[in-house]
Each structure stands twice: as structure tokens, then as C-alpha cells.
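Hi W., the 2'-monophosphoadenosine-5'-diphosphate complex you wanted:
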Amino acid sequence: MTGSADTITPLHKVCVIGWPVAHSRSPLIHTTWLARHGIKGEYHRVAVPPEELADTLRCLPALGYHGANVTVPHKEAAFAALMPFVDPPAQRLQAVNTVYRDPDTATIRGTNTDGVGFLAHLRHAVPDFDGTTAVVLGAGGAARAIVDALETDAGMAVRIVNRTVARARDMVAALDLKASIYRWEDMGEALRGADLLVNSTSLGMAGQPPLRIDLAPLPAHAVVYDIVYVPLETDLLTQARARGLRTVDGLGMLLRQAAPGFVRWFGEAIDDGDVAAARALIEADLNRDTG
Ligand code: ATR
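Structure:
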């Protein structure tokens, strides 16, 4: 035995694949966790154009990576490229956000942690939440994971409100859900009696139009969850707080969808202290960008 533990321990490298990818906060999250856990690993950003995605995923190990996150606009294409090596959450959503090497078969597999991250943050932020009816605004990629998690995993009745009703219908049919669908103009009716409101549209995000809705029909015990985190305090959350409603911001979802990937790649579980540490750094980063 000659080499030290340092020289024989393989350096685990993981990356986030997007197009563009410069603004991804995932490297900040994972490098913070690697440092806190004393793990020798690296997490890079890799910009991959759509036409190179499938080859990049297939060649991940040859490129030196044993895992990856996949972000906009590649989640659906990553699912198609990795089929049939996908786990049930990715299969349901037909979208992959986390890629890992299966230690038993050495194959590259895809999974999806968006739904689990969304629910984990809700349960952490509002531990006594026991609502049964949720309203979800939106029917895009983010909404898919959220609606599916709320109905399938949390067993809630879901009301979807989307500007394009046909898109909401397609989503409900594709996921084989029972969720009811409301037109944007019928927002008030959808909100009446709801225990949870989730904004999963891009409205309210920096650079996008504002989200203007009247929260008056929501009951006083309702929770308002905005998955937008730039800015962290969206107009929706400010308005909800002004009405005395409990609020949940979008940064926790980003952090908690990252945790299952970290466990798979680096073998260590993420605790609330790890989440809080990464959160503080991202908040500082966001304040620098917007300040
Ligand atoms: P993501 O994958 O991040 O969810 P997306 O697929 O582009 O992004 O979805 C964006 C969501 O925001 C959609 O629900 C979209 O509504 P449509 O399905 O009608 O396009 C919603 N959205 C975007 N701009 C909007 C606007 N100005 N008014 C209402 N909804 C809007």
C-alpha cells in the first residue's frame, strides 16, 4: 500500500446541463454541500445545445461525469434520450432533472426530483399543513411536477388555473389526473375554499409581467406558495402576507430538489443545516444581482 487515501479516492464530478446554463444556482448549492461534508468532488456548469444533448448524456462517463442535473430547456429531451433507463417519477412526468449512475448495473439513469422537492419544502415551511384542496396556477413543465405531487403523492384535490385551458387539459390527460381546470377569468371561483395556492407560472419573475390576482376569496388559513425565487419576495407573497396568510417562497424548492441528487452522487444525506447554509449563500447572490 503506497498511495494515501487522497490519491486513491476517485474524484466525483457532476455537472448541470442547460442551454444557457450560466445563471444556474445548482453549482453553488452542491459545492456548498461538498465542502460541508468534506467530500472531494466537483460540480460544473456545462452548456449543451439541444442537438448535442442525447450524445452528451450517453457519453457522460466518458466525459468524466458520474451524474448531472438537467435544466431548461432539456428536461423532456433528456427523458427521451435516456429511455428506458428512467425511474418512475421521470416516467410519470416524461421529464428528467437528475441523472445518476446506477451502482448495480453501471447504467446511466434519469429520475425527477422536482415533485419531491416541492412537497419537502412545503412540509418543512408549514409543518402542520393538512390542507385538502390546492389551486395551481400554470400548466407548463414546473406545473406538471407540482400538480402530480399534490394529487398523486399528497392526495389533494387540485384545481388548475391556466391562461391556455387546452394546455391544462392536455397535462391532466397525459398524467391521468382528476384535477379540475378553470379559466383565468374564473380565478375567484377556483380560490374559494382552497387551502393552498401555488404559482407555477413565470408571472412575477424578474423580467416577466407581474402576477395580478385578487386573493380575497382565499380562506384565512390558506398557504400561498410561489415557486418564483427571483425576486425572493414576489408581489404575490407580499400581497398574501398583507392579508395575514402564511407564505412559502420558491428557493426552498430549488434546494430540496437538489438534495436527492447529492445523496445519489456523493452518498451523503442533506439535512436542514445544509439547506440553510446553501440558502444563505444563494440569498446573498440574489441580493448582489438585484441590489
Ligand atoms: P415552465 O417549464 O417553467 O413551467 P413554461 O412551460 O413556459 O415554463 O410555462 C409557463 C407557464 O406560465 C404556463 O402555464 C403559461 O401559460 P400558458 O400555458 O397559457 O402559456 C404561464 N404564463 C406565462 N406567461 C403568462 C401570462 N402573461 N399570463 C398568464 N399565464 C402566463
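Residues 1-5 have pLDDT under 50 and may be disordered.

W.
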